[in-house]
């Protein structure tokens, strides 16, 4: 049965109709605006011809008389009344003039019925569309399929995989862990790319073994890490070094537009440090490791997930500044070369004295503004090949 909205016009409304009046509000009253009609949830709808028939009968007109009034063939009007012919804009204008209503409303009634009928006829397909869109709003599905992180399939298969990795209830709009995540820029929520990166990093960590967490041991590792990683090949030892002190280290390449360098968190098995390798540079990777290590040592990872994108220091909160300062103190232990022009040989000599890789000296010179970002990059190796073996 149709919703009992009534057309407002100047003709008397008969009370002796043998069926429910389906006439809709077609006036200019504020409460009956077109936007109101468009935004109402359509539980059920009826062909526009049924509303038109109500209007004709309310005026005690015959169909042939109405056809004469609007100057249309009787057959054309009959086809509209019986749902066999669609209203055109021209016909809607003529009906509106004859009934004292608005042409736009007649077209809206027709479209609402068409939308309702389409939704009824294709409900399963449309529900699948909604479900696929919900997944795509949560995580970058196309990239997950491309990288083989989920198996492509129908929507139910893909949903099950995503909910499992996110450890979220089916239909959730956010992963549970995302609620506990703290970014460098706290005002910005996690993007789908960041949500996926964290979830799949955590999944990878669950598959790793490590010793019981050793807090003092991790602090000592942080203090000596740059000297342990004085060669590019030494980076291969990072997961094992951290596992010895009870910290799992995972690498997952960042997703497109992810803008995330690293994160740390603690689960029932202890701390995890995840790195994306964004920037593909040895100095950036090592400092990200040190920064996340500092967060764990300082206890920041006990309260949730800490996410770092190495934004402007001015935007850092107190915990970020504390971790950044500790990581910086671990990086280099002696003054750096200074001067208008610093050569590669000077950098290498300084690195040798400090027992670190030259990339770390270059990185600090860049960060401090002593050397332009584009200079001395030949001393900074790429790390993607080694990260692929972690």
Automatic annotation (TrEMBL):
Residues 1-31 are annotated as: Disordered. It comes from Cryobacterium frigoriphilum. This is Addiction module antidote protein, HigA family. Residues 52-107 form the HTH cro/C1-type domain. Transmembrane segments: none annotated. PROSITE patterns: HTH_CROC1 (PS50943). Residues 1-12 have a biased composition (Polar residues). GO terms for molecular function: DNA binding. Gene3D superfamilies: 1.10.10.2910, lambda repressor-like DNA-binding domains. Belongs to the short-chain fatty acyl-CoA assimilation regulator (ScfR) family. Residues 16-31 have a biased composition (Basic and acidic residues). InterPro entries: Cro/C1-type_HTH, IrrE_HExxH, Lambda_DNA-bd_dom_sf, Rad_response_metalloprotease, Toxin_antidote_HigA. The lineage of its organism: Bacteria, Bacillati, Actinomycetota, Actinomycetes, Micrococcales. CDD domains: HTH_XRE (cd00093). It holds the Pfam family HTH_3.
């Amino acid at each position: 049965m149709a919703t009992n909205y009534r057309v407002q016009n100047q003709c008397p409304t008969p009370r002796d109709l043998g069926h429910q009046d389906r006439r809709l509000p077609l006036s200019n009253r504020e409460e009956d605006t077109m936007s109101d009609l468009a935004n109402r949830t359509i539980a059920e709808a009826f062909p526009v011809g049924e509303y038109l028939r109500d209007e004709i009968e309310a005026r005690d007109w015959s169909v042939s008389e109405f056809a004469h009034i609007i100057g249309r063939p009787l057959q054309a009007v009959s086809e509209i009344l019986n749902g066999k012919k669609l209203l055109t804009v021209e016909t809607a204008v003529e009906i509106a003039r004859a009934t004292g209503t608005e042409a736009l409303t007649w077209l809206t009634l027709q479209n609402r019925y068409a939308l309702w009928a389409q939704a009824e006829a294709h409900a399963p397909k449309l529900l699948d569309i909604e479900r696929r869109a919900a997944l795509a709003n949560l995580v970058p599905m196309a990239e997950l399929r491309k990288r083989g992180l989920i198996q492509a399939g129908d929507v139910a298969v893909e949903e099950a995989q995503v909910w499992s990795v996110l450890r979220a209830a089916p239909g959730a709009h956010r992963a549970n862990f995302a609620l506990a995540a703290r970014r460098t820029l706290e005002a910005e929520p996690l993007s789908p790319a960041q949500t996926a990166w964290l979830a799949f990093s955590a999944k990878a960590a669950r598959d790793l073994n490590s010793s019981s967490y050793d807090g003092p041991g991790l602090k000592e590792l942080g203090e000596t890490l740059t000297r342990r990683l004085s060669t590019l090949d030494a980076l291969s030892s990072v997961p094992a070094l951290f596992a010895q002190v009870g910290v799992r280290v995972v690498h997952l390449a960042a997703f497109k537009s992810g803008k995330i360098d690293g994160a740390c968190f603690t689960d029932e098995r202890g701390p995890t440090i995840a790195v994306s390798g964004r920037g593909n540079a040895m100095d950036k990777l090592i400092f990200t490791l040190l920064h996340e290590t500092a967060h764990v040592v300082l206890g920041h990872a006990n309260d949730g997930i800490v996410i770092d994108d190495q934004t402007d220091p001015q935007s850092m909160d107190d915990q970020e500044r504390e971790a950044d300062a500790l990581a910086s103190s671990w990086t280099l232990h002696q003054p750096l070369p200074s001067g208008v022009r610093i050569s590669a040989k000077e950098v290498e000599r300084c690195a040798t004295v400090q027992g670190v890789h030259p990339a770390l000296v270059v990185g600090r010179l860049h960060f401090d503004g002593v050397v332009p970002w584009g200079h001395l990059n030949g001393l900074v190796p790429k790390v993607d090949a080694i990260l692929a073996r972690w």
